[in-house]
Task: structure prediction
Amino acid sequence: MSKTCKGCGVILQNEDKEALGYTPSMEKEYCQRCFRLTHYNDVMISMQQGIDNDALLEKVNALDALVLWVVDVVDFESSIIKGINRHLIGKDIVLICTKSDLLPRDVNPNKIANFILHRLKVNGIHVKGVVMCPNLHKQDEESVASIEAAMDHFRAGRDVVLLGNANAGKSTLLNALLQKQALTTSIHPGTTLDINPILYNDYTLYDTPGIVNKKSLLTYVPEDQLKDAIFFKQLNPKKYQLKDNQSLAIGGYVRLDLKACEQVSVVCYFSESLTIHRGKMEQADELWERHLGEMLSPTIDSNYKDMKKYTTTKNIKKMDIVIAGLGWFCIQGEVKDIHVYVNKNVDVLFREAMI
Ligand SMILES: Nc1nc2c(ncn2[C@@H]2O[C@H](COP(=O)(O)OP(=O)(O)OP(=O)(O)O)[C@@H](O)[C@H]2O)c(=O)[nH]1
Ligand SMILES: [Mg+2]
Result:
């Protein structure tokens, strides 16, 4: 049987230095990529590693296991696995909500839990339970105890498999349970490469590679831009009061136009590293045409005319506009038309406000 890396699950090999799974010696337990990620953090990772979602779901389905579905609350909408109950026929699923420590300090955790239940209902998803777990990267004791209690309650003699989007915190969760840095984690999505079994008490925990969401902006962000696009610090939302036809730019990733608005408040929940430009709507076309990739950066588009335009009217009192993978705007007040421009592969979603 092939030997696999204990950090990321990839099959170890010592023939091709450039290929995944390379180790200088087959005696070693970790591949060189995991070793470098853990000790020097100098390996670039992106989502272009060819993880096949359907094959992964099939492998998970074949296990006799309780599914812990790990969902990053600050990237909630892209973490939704559409039709998860259909993919995992008859499986018991418990949703583990990670990274709530990244939400602003004054946010009520009960409100977030209710929001999650509501979003699951809207998406027609059934889970056995929802467990809120902040600070798993700091091995938060309360979170670990809640996960163990959920596993004891729902496992019924079966194994446990983790499932979720890339970067949701699956390997971090397992390290917290194991109380050691056994599995490789990193701030970039795409760290775990294959199903990785770990013996735990008298059963097996399975770490898995992240599901790739083809509608998330992060899937298209080049490796060197990822650290600026991803949330890893507590959110520090920026608030704007907009009076007339105005336009906001989030770096060169998103353009938001608010037409015929009166005293509208727009709160921007994006990575602090992204610069927000505010300007007049009538000048926005010219600005985006001339300055995309320069003043308006970072970007994944070379021509703003290739970007997709979403249009909506505000019909919810407090509405979020979510840019899959990147963050969201929360809009309150009177506004007639809203236009959002993003890369054509990326989803934009309108929902009742989370916060
Ligand atoms: N603030 C915060 N960060 C977390 C939490 N859980 C995980 N992280 C961070 O999220 C990043 C991704 O964690 P991983 O455990 O590598 O995520 P993963 O789901 O295994 O990712 P893939 O292997 O790429 O599928 C790391 O930088 C973790 O430190 C949490 O509860 N709070
Ligand atoms: Mg992982």
Remarks:
- The pocket of guanosine-5'-triphosphate (ligand 1) is lined by residues 98-99, 101-102, 134-137, 164, 166-172, 185-187, 189-192, 209-210, 232 (CB under 6 Å).
